Structures are given as structure tokens and as C-alpha cells.
Amino acid sequence: xxxxxxxxxxxIGGAFFPGWIFAAIGGLVSMLLVRQILHWTGxxxxxxxxxxxxLGVFIAITVLLWYAFFLT
Length: 72
What we know:
By secondary structure, this protein is mainly alpha-helical. It is 60% helix and 11% strand. It has one domain. The chain contains 2 helices and 2 strands. It has a two-stranded antiparallel sheet with strand order 1-2. A hairpin with a 2-residue loop joins strand 1 (9-12) and strand 2. The radius of gyration is 16 Å and the shape is elongated.
């Protein structure tokens, strides 16, 4: 019960990384793919605050990846 809030630690080549790093990397890659799709379709030019829009997409995808893979 006391360890319910602990961050999952992943061992890669003897180095330990917290799980949120992998969720953030996945969110960044996914956000870049979403940006490319919006650019190819021409929707990107209609976004008012592109920086905030992409930040929101990044945070949403990161949280969804965290919940999907690391929340037990």
C-alpha cells in the first residue's frame, strides 16, 4: 500500500530509468507525427496558438502512454 505511488523503474543495460521518461519520449515522437499529419493535410496553418496546441497534444499523449503502460 505504501509503495503504490512509486515510479516504475526500468533496467536498460544496467542503468535504471524511471518509466515517465519513456512515456515522455513516446509522447514527443507521437506529437511530431501528429504535427506532420496536420502539416500535410493543411490544418496546421489554421491553428491559432500552435505552440500551446502542440504542448497540449504532447501532454495528452504522454499521460495516455503513462496510464496505458505504467499504471498498475
